[in-house]
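User: Design a sequence. Structure:
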């Protein structure tokens, strides 16, 4: 507050006394009252006087206004009465000091007003003199309450700014208008790596990254030129250590009251991490983009209705359509129409569940009239804000599909004939059974095998066998309808599945197949004949499931085979796989010990000359419940269950024993014993025979061993060795069933055999069938040329017998000459056999 000239004529150096001069003073002042009033009454400052004791002498209007007291009230008061208690001492001290010689004093004092508030006055006080004497004090006080408040507020805001400035996490600096740093906070220093001093003394533009410098300087200039008060941009700084820091800079312009730019505040935030993340994001986005653009899969994004939002460029190369052409278009239109409903329903399921993913396959027709196959993985990312669609990852799987199909074909088909194999048959049979159950229709399953195929294989080799099977397979396929299935089960076994076919239909088809398959085959210039045996099992009456039907068809086939080929429909009593069969095997095992296996003897008669007759031992099973069983009812069973070897031993020993008995009773007849193929391979056989012959004292040539062609051929080497051994012992060797296999006589002649036995099938027909007659005749001739004896089996009538005699057949066997006889009947038969030449009529 400036000093105001005193309105009172005073003599500054004159000391003023106290009370004694009061009156005097008053009068003086009264004289000046008018002027006093005029001068001070209306100033804004509070002007007052008080005597040296502190009693108010005068106060102007501003004082009254400020204190709220009336002039009278104030005139009756002392100064200290309106000073706040804390300041009373200060006020008194001021007065004391002035009286002690201090001419003026300036101090601040808070008042207590009548309004109850506490305005603060800054008071300039001085002594008033009269006649060199101080007589009063004059005070001019200015109300500084508002100023103090503003100052305090300023201080506070300054403090607040300081603490923000210093403690801010972002870098702040104040710059002059040339861009020099005036001050910087700690965060700024830390961010740039310079201390406060260095920042103030450095040209900040040199700290800018060279790439950003020009732009940043320009923007800063524009700001200080006042174009804008505020600017924000991202720029890079170089730290003291040379590294780069990305910052987001905000520049604000500070203006003076007149609006002139004063300074700049620069705030900088380190956004390196964010920039890095962004860049990484951009990089990875670019990477993904290029991945998707270059991937061989088709990546498509569809909306919930299946319309294409995006489709990757691979679409062009795979689909042959421009990706753009598909945008906004229904994705499913690109598929094979037959697949669309299925794919759409999968798509709908995926759309219906957030996050769901499903794989679906579909086709697209290709130009060659075939298909290309695709696999689409559909993922519902509709709720993913980044994607907002269903992602379809489509890839071509044509190659995979083809090789799968090839593999499947391979797994389900027989490589040789290309026919379905057992697995596929089983599958089709299952399906056919289900369909038949649904539609209440029958179905038939045929099992068939080629008779004598094994012989072809063994005689001419697998190559021929394979060719024969291929031809057979082709014939079979040609013989049936398209809805039927022909399968090769393995070896020479086939199956035919006839849907919607009953007993009669099946039998007709089977007969047709028998005819078709038994026509001669031409393989590599050779004409081959094979027959076939077919077994039929019928659904539903003979089996409700694939397994049962297959087993029963097999059983029936076996039955057909046993009866010499042709067709057999399954019937339960034939079922060799049934429990009865199991029981039978058990019983057969015991039958040997129980001596239930007995021998019948069928005469083998010399047709010319005085040769010795002999008897073929034929085994029978005297079954306790079933009665007398013929070999075909149990020999195959014995063969399958491995019992045939011990049965063979039993028969041998019985036959030789019988032969010895006959010898002892003067009947010098030989025995012929049938030997199974396996029996011949029994290493103990020659020893057993040698022992039995010597035990019974029989010459070895009393025994003839009959071995079938097939038995010989199973393992020619072993057979040969066994035959040589037996032959060397002197046992006679005969080839049974000759003609049913494919052995040639010249082959057989290399074996040490003595005799061949022409199969009865030829002999039975030889008078009716010229072919058979030729076979019989040429066989006899050839055999004789090779030095072999010939037996004709199956002589049932006189004509045949006569014809065989004409052909010089050595021996004959058959019902005409003698049926297989129980041992007790042999002597009476022999008595009718006169002197070697047997006369059946006699
Ligand atoms: P195989 O060796 O060919 O025996 C001859 C079969 O022909 C006998 O049948 C006999 O009864 C039958 N037979 C004889 N003459 C005639 C005829 O004029 N017309 C017709 N239609 N048939 C005639 P069987 O006794 O039922 O024997 C069948 C087969 O069983 C035999 O055929 C033989 O291979 C086998 N077999 C019999 N006994 C034994 C044996 O002890 N061991 C072995 N391994 N097999 C045996
Ligand atoms: Mg025989």
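Assistant: Done.
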């Amino acid at each position: 507050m400036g000093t105001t000239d005193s309105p009172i004529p005073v003599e500054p150096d004159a000391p003023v006394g106290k009370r004694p001069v009061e009156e005097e003073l008053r009068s003086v002042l009264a004289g000046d009252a008018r002027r006093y009033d005029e001068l001070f009454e209306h100033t804004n400052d509070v002007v007052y006087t008080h005597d040296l004791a502190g009693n108010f002498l005068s106060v102007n209007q501003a004082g009254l206004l400020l204190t709220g007291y009336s002039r009278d009230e104030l005139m009756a008061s002392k100064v200290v009465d309106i000073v706040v208690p804390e300041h009373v001492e200060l006020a008194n001290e001021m007065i004391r000091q002035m009286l002690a010689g201090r001419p003026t004093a300036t101090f601040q004092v808070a008042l207590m007003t009548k309004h109850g508030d506490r305005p603060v006055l800054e008071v300039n006080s001085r002594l008033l003199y009269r006649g060199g004497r101080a007589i009063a004090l004059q005070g001019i006080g200015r109300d500084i309450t508002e100023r103090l408040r503003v100052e305090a507020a300023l201080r506070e805001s300054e403090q607040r700014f300081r603490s923000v400035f210093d403690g801010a996490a972002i870098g702040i600096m104040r710059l002059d208008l040339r861009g020099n740093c005036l001050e910087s906070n700690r965060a700024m220093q830390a961010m740039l790596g310079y201390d406060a001093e260095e920042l103030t003394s450095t040209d900040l533009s040199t700290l800018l990254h060279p790439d950003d410098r020009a732009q940043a300087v320009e923007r800063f200039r524009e700001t200080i030129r006042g174009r804008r008060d505020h600017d924000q941009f991202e720029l890079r700084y170089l730290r003291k250590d040379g590294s780069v820091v990305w910052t987001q800079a905000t520049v604000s312009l500070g203006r003076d009251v007149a609006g002139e730019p004063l300074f700049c505040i620069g705030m900088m935030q380190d956004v390196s991490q964010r920039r890095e993340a962004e860049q990484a994001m951009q990089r990875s986005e670019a990477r993904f983009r290029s991945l998707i653009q270059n991937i061989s899969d088709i990546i498509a994004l569809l909306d919930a209705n299946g319309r294409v939002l995006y489709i990757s460029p691979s679409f062009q190369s795979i689909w042959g359509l421009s990706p753009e052409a598909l945008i906004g278009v229904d994705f499913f239109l690109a598929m094979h129409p037959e697949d669309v409903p299925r794919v759409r329903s999968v798509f709908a399921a995926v759309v219906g569940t957030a996050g769901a993913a499903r794989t679906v396959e579909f086709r697209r027709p290709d130009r060659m009239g075939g298909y290309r196959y695709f696999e689409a993985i559909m993922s519902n990312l509709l709720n993913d804000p980044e994607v907002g669609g269903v992602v379809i990852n489509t890839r071509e799987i044509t190659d995979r599909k083809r090789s799968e199909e090839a593999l499947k074909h391979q797994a389900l088909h027989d490589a040789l004939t290309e026919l379905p194999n057992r697995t596929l048959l089983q599958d089709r049979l299952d399906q056919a059974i289900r369909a038949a159950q649904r539609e209440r229709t029958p179905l038939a399953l045929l099992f068939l095998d080629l008779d004598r195929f094994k012989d072809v294989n063994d005689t001419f080799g697998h190559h021929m066998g394979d060719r024969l099977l291929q031809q057979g397979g082709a014939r079979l396929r040609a013989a049936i309808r398209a809805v039927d299935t022909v399968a090769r089960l393995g070896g020479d076994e086939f199956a035919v599945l006839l849907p919607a076919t009953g007993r009669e239909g099946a039998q007709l088809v089977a007969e047709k197949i028998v005819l078709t398959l038994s026509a001669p085959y031409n393989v590599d210039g050779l004409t081959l004949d094979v027959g076939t045996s077919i077994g039929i099992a019928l659904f539903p009456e003979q089996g409700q499931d694939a397994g049962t039907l297959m087993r029963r068809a097999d059983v029936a086939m076996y039955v057909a085979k046993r009866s010499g080929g042709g067709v057999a429909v399954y019937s339960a009593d034939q079922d060799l796989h049934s429990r009865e069969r199991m029981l039978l095997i058990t019983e057969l095992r015991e039958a040997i010990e129980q001596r239930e296996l007995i021998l019948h003897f069928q005469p083998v008669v010399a047709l010319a000359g005085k040769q010795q007759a002999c008897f073929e031992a034929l085994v029978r099973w005297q079954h306790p419940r079933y009665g007398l069983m013929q070999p075909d009812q149990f020999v195959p069973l014995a063969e399958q269950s491995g019992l045939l070897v011990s049965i063979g031993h039993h028969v041998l020993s019985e036959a030789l024993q019988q032969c010895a008995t006959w010898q002892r009773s003067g009947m010098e007849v030989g025995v012929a014993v049938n030997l199974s193929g396996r029996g011949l391979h029994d290493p103990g056989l020659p020893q057993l025979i040698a022992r039995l012959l010597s035990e019974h004292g029989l010459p070895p040539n009393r025994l003839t061993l009959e071995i079938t062609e097939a038995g010989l051929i199973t393992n020619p080497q072993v057979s040969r060795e066994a035959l040589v051994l037996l032959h060397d012992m002197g046992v006679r060797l005969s080839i049974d069933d000759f003609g049913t296999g494919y052995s040639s006589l010249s082959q057989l002649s290399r074996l040490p055999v003595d005799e061949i036995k022409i199969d009865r099938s030829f002999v039975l027909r030889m008078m009716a069938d010229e072919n058979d007659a030729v076979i019989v005749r040429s066989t006899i001739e050839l055999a004789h040329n090779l030095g072999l004896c010939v037996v004709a089996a199956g002589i049932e009538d006189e004509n045949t017998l006569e014809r065989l005699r004409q052909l010089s057949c050595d021996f004959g066997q058959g019902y005409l000459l003698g049926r297989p006889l129980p041992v007790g009947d042999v002597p009476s038969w022999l008595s009718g056999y006169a002197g070697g030449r047997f006369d059946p009529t006699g």
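The chain has 30 helices and 32 strands. The longest strand covers residues 244-255.
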